[in-house]
Design goal:
alpha/beta, Aspartate Aminotransferase, domain 1, 4-stranded antiparallel sheet, 460 residues
């Protein structure tokens, strides 16, 4: 009979398996020997199919754990590699990953207290502390604000629109051209009108255009929802939040700020001021699997007034019977649209407690410094053009005088060879290479090596 991970024998059972996993990870990474497996999709898929064989054989294979972990590691994009910089895909902290293992072993489900007694209390305490981090440290904020754990920015943004709709009925979303695609998708999922889009001429929302749009719409108070962005996915830019908040207040519009990327700046004394105006939003999206170095998933939706969460209340007698609730058992169904929910809060709590605000802030400062250094290196290089100095940790650049086709081809070649993982972004009607630096261990030599690789693959 297969042993279990939990219970009295769990640690004894897991210990040798962890050794197997760690050895397989090491072997797989050695096989890959770079930030990405070489060969492109066809070759990577073929190697994986060979390792997997029959996905559901008649008889099991005791070596499957080693085989498949090694195959996955060999075919992975490694976010800890300094040359893997394409996306908002961070290398997770070891302590957070270890906590995530404990969550998997204990396997609580946060849909009723009797499945997650300690985890439900931990979530309540930590989410309120994070809401206070967004909305301020006053006693009033601590008692008024709250946050929900989500799977990431897409779920958080959808919840923000749902709460706005439930509070005000008809809701018209107003966002800029730079808004995350999940907001537009959420309007479709929720049956809301097409968003009103205002210009973002320099990559950020134009307050004057927003003011004109709000004046023209003139809906009932609260029926307009403005979504601003603190950390765009293309260039890491931050909308002028104080100006946007003032316009929303003047027009009686609700404000949501998607700070999935930029929210991590809250931990940095040096960079926190870039988020001035954040606390004036009704709802805020955060993603700690970006500038928080958590294993996926670690999203949050913070709300300024916890009473705004009331529409999420839901009754299922077997999970939150009235007499149980009246007897003091916490009702967890209003904490998410999901029912079964793993305790993602554990890894977040362990990280916050282990590093503290100062430790997390130091990591944020480091990646922002590396991005500034990389931008300076590009700006001094005669064969490259820098789009702009980074606001957070994203740098856009391109070979001087290259066509968009050349920029795209250089990126794909580096991907296919497994040499470097760069993203792409279209701004100012041109295609740019995108480096999002989230590895605090990246050094100056790594940045120089990345630039040299791009230069070497660019036709003269």
């Amino acid at each position: 009979m297969s042993p279990l991970a939990s219970g009295p024998q769990g640690p004894t059972t897991l210990r040798p398996l962890l050794t197997t996993v760690l050895d397989a990870l090491t072997a797989g990474a050695a096989t890959r020997d770079g930030p990405l497996p070489a060969g492109g999709p066809t070759e990577v898929a073929a190697r994986l199919r060979e390792a997997l064989g029959d996905p559901l054989p008649d008889h099991g294979d005791e070596d499957a754990l080693r085989t498949l972990v090694q195959a996955l590691a060999a075919g992975a994009a490694d976010p800890a590699d300094p040359l893997c910089t394409a996306h908002l895909h961070c290398p997770p902290l070891a302590v957070a990953t270890a906590a995530d293992l404990a969550a998997s072993v204990l396997n609580p489900s946060l849909d009723s207290w009797d499945q997650a007694p300690a985890a439900s209390e931990l979530e309540a305490l930590v989410t309120r502390a994070l809401a206070a981090e967004v909305y301020g440290e006053t006693d009033q904020a601590r008692s008024a604000g709250d946050a929900l754990v989500t799977t990431g920015g897409t779920e958080s943004n959808q919840l923000a629109l749902l709460l706005a709709r439930e509070h005000h009925g008809h809701t018209q979303l107003v966002c800029a051209e730079n808004a995350h695609h999940s907001l537009r998708r959420a309007t479709w999922l929720l049956g809301l009108p097409e968003p009103v889009t205002v210009p973002a001429p320099a990559g950020t929302m134009d307050p004057a255009a927003l003011g004109e749009a709000l004046t023209a719409l003139q809906g009932p108070r609260g029926s307009l929802l403005v979504a601003a962005t603190a950390g765009t996915t293309d260039a890491g830019l931050i909308d002028p939040l104080p100006d946007i908040a003032a316009l929303c207040e003047a027009h009686g519009a609700r404000l949501h700020i998607d700070a999935a990327y930029g929210g991590g700046l809250l931990f940095s004394a040096r960079h926190r001021s870039k988020l001035d105006g954040l606390a004036r939003a009704h709802t805020v999206t955060l993603d700690l699997h970006k500038l928080g170095w958590q294993p996926i998933a670690a999203g949050l939706l913070a709300v300024r007034d916890r009473h705004d969460l009331a529409p999420l209340g839901h009754h299922a007698d077997y999970l939150n019977a009235d007499d149980d609730t009246e007897a003091g058992l916490p009702d967890l169904l209003g904490r998410s649209l999901r029912t079964t929910r793993r305790p993602d809060i554990l890894k977040i709590a362990v990280t916050l407690k282990t590093l503290g605000r100062t430790g997390l802030g130091a990591l944020v400062d480091r990646v922002c410094e590396r991005a500034a250094e990389f931008a300076e290196l590009i700006d001094r290089h005669p064969r490259f053009e820098l789009h702009d100095r980074p606001t957070i940790s994203t740098v856009l650049f391109r070979p001087t005088d290259a066509t968009d086709d050349t920029v795209a081809a250089v990126r794909r070649t580096l991907l296919t060879e497994g040499r470097a993982v760069l993203g792409r972004a279209r701004l100012d009607d041109r295609l740019w290479l995108k480096a999002t630096l989230l590895n605090p261990h990246t050094g100056a030599d790594d940045l120089a090596a990345l630039l040299k690789l791009v230069e070497g693959h660019t036709p003269r």
